[in-house]
Design brief:
With 313 residues, the protein is of the alpha/beta class. The protein has helices spanning 12-22, 70-73, 89-107, 110-116, 143-155, 177-186, 207-211, 234-243, 283-298, and strands spanning 2-7, 28-30, 40-46, 61-64, 83-84, 135-139, 158-163, 173-176, 190-193, 222-225, 248-251, 271-273. Strand 1, helix 1 and strand 2 form a beta-alpha-beta unit.
Amino acid sequence: MSLLLAMSGWHIEDWRARFQALLPEMPIVTLGEPFDRRAVHYVASWKHPPGSLTGLPNLAAIFSLGAGVDFLFADDKLPEAPIARVVDPDLTTRMSEYVVLHCLMYLRQQHRYMRQQPAKLWEDDRDQPAARALRVGIMGLGELGLDAARKLKAIGFDVAGWSRSPKSVEGLATFCGEDGMRAFLARTDILVSLLPLTQETRGIINADLLDSLAQDGRLGPFLINAGRGGLQVEADILAALDAGTLKGATLDVFETEPLPSDSPLWSHPLVTVTPHNAAMSEPEAIASLIAQQIRRMEAGEPLQHVVDPARGY
């Protein structure tokens, strides 16, 4: 019985050393070496080459090494085995830090002051709304969205959430589905996207959505996308910024990553670009979580945080 590490873009030997220390009794193998495919019971993957997980007859579970699982479903030869996603308190906290930071940047108009500084422009602006005056709308009410909502509310923001299916959260106004989307957007000054990428959500941040954001707020509307790059239509974001219907955008994820050097997002004065690091996975924590899952399964206990293939998350 072995664990197969199937990844690209990461230093695989570091991951092998982590898992070997946590699972000393289990061989840790990689795609770049000969191994017995019949012995593989578990796979830990991050953007593995499509088709590379075929021919594993005893596969019991696939673990994503990151917060998302959309890369797994992009493999049309993915084996029919249970998939577990990462639910890590450290990752959740990091995402909330990012969301709170950038909401506060818009609330306190810090982007404007940073643009004024090189010009040595002093504007004694007394129009500084309190957090309660800005309406934040969070798309996606999973672990990440709910934690960010709680922390934004603690600061004083007026927070609401939207999800595909109905969710009842104490102390939080919630909207759902297509029927609830318009009302949700109409009350949103800062839109925070933490949705997973599925067939239903691909391209959801488009011209129609951006045009539906509140235009009657003290500040905004603004966009923060720290979910997935496939959620956004970047041409529509740029058009909304240029038209003035969107006052600023903070983007951590992109249609193509790394963001191409010729993308106009790099130089647009109303865009903040971060390199997909809103919630970096802590390798030690994630390896430990996966090792715990494997030990649970070996003890006959059920797999936790299982992905629903029909929903894509």
